[in-house]
Design goal:
187 residues, mainly beta, three-stranded antiparallel beta sheet
Amino acid sequence: MKLVLPKVKPRDLIADNKWTLFPGDLVQVIGGTRASEVGKEGKVLDVVRKLNSVTVDGVKTNIKHIRPNPIRPRGGRIEKPMPIHFSNLKLVDPHVNKITDAKLVSSINRETGRLETYRLLKESGTKLPIPEDDGPVDKYESSIHDTPKSLLAEKTWEPTILKTPFPARFLNQMERNRRFGLGSREF
């Protein structure tokens, strides 16, 4: 079964200077299809700008059935948060603990002379920095099947002109396929 994502037209995408929700923010649900979810607060886990949606921890959870696998030999059911449209969420001001609007502001820092962008909160009038993305590596939990970080930094192959990265027989077959126009063929 193929996952079908809703298509958002380019004109309906939120501009970068209007997007004020980022991973790690505390938000409150103000609307949506599920009336039981309205008023709930949660931390933003993920933002998908191409779909104008946000995934919030503990809000709009669905049950996902999992097949048996090495980690869960019996399979099972887990609760997974589903995306919510950004218009159904409001940012919670951490200083006042109330929902508020935010505005992205760019200004030059006088001390460093660099352009810095931050969010200006309407309720308290304070600056809220934009959290830096740690990258995809830190988002996942490590398991026993992962390669240790000490081995990742280790250099295991030194490229040279004398040694080929593939066996000669394989390279010769690839060259024959290229010459005779066979394209990529199974070996």
